[in-house]
Amino acid sequence: MINRRKPVRIGDVVFNTFNFVFMATLMIITLYPFLNTLAISFNNGVDTLRGGIYLWPREFSLQNYKAIFIGGNVFHAFLVSVERTVLTTVLNLFLTTMLSYTLSRKEYVFRKPITIIVVLTMYFNAGIIPNYFLIKNLHLLNSFWVYVLPAMIAAFNMIVIRTFILGIPESFVESARIDGAGDFRIFMQVIFPLCKPVLATIALFVAVGSWNTWFDTFLYCSSKQNLSTLQYELMKLLSSTQNFNANPALAAGVGANAHSAENMVTSLSIRASITIVAAVPIIIVYPFLQRYFVVGLNVGGVKE
CA angle 288-292-296, nearest 5°? Predict the structure, then answer.
């Protein structure tokens, strides 16, 4: 039996080679900043000042992470941040999607004025001081709910979800109404499941924003240590290291060897460690949401 090979074209070889080199270069450019930060976070703080650290720590050390987690409120703040992020994301998705569905219904007579009012909030803001007095008058100062309640509805998210809902065939709703379903049942059993792709995207945006913010803790809950969030604690730690500009190395050890070179951290090493600590939870969650970004779930439904 004669084995006939497909002739190799020079153009295909050139294209595949260029494509491989381009994608490999793009991957290196994308991953290098994170890998470099990871290497610095595991490197000795004093040795980091010499520079020249790229993808692997020159003098491996866990002192940077010890300086973050030992003797502080970091673990409790981490739990507060997780609780805040989960509640904010769940409530924002559910309530914003419910509002989006309501404003997408053509039979709702007030949908246009309410949509205009919601959109105007994206362009006009009273500022920090009026917002502070509003939070104070609502008795939300030094309360956990100051993290959750103001973030339950987002105008931009509403527009995105409403646009997605308008793209869902009306036949789904009509079929449910024929079966005797009401608006809430249609929303929960028809619209909400079909919105999974856009909800996954919005969930990532809301979760990242809620996880990374620290300014609201500074404004509304700075006097309550038990309400401090992870980002606020890390911000305070970073600020404390930056105050040692005259002496770039900050002692972070415990005991008689506190000022030895092995137990010293610097603002650069602490900043790298804080970046890794703050980014790891989002990196863990992201793969579970990625598959919903593009894939739609209304394939195979009622055809127009």
Answer: 160
The whole model's pTM is what?
0.75
Helices (H), the chain: 10-41, 45-48, 63-69, 74-104, 111-120, 128-137, 155-166, 170-178, 183-186, 192-194, 196-212, 215-220, 230-242, 267-290
The two tokens of residue 241 are 């290291």
How many Cβ atoms are within 10 Å of 247's Cβ, its own excluded? Answer: 10
| Residue 97 is assigned to a structural domain of this protein | yes
Question: H or E segment at 250?
Answer: strand 249-251
CA distance 219 to 154: 20
Tokens 């790891």, located at residue: 280
CATH code of the domain in which 195 resides = 1.10.3720.10
Which H helix or E strand runs over 265? strand 264-266
Give percent above pLDDT 70 in the chain.
84
Mean pLDDT over the full length of the chain = 81
Neighbour count for residue 296 (Cβ, 10 Å): 14
Check pLDDT > 80 for residue 52. Answer: yes
On the 0-12 / 13-18 / 19+ scale of CB atoms within 10 A, 143 is middle
The answer to whether residue 5 scores a pLDDT higher than 70 is no
- Expressed as residue numbers, the domain containing 34 is 10-71+243-290
- Whether 171 and 132 map to the same domain: the answer is yes
Cα distances (angstroms) measured from residue 217 to each of 60, 159, 170, 211: 34, 28, 44, 12
Place of tokens 């994308």: 30
The Cα-based distances of 1 to 4, 5, 8, 39 in angstroms read: 9, 13, 21, 56
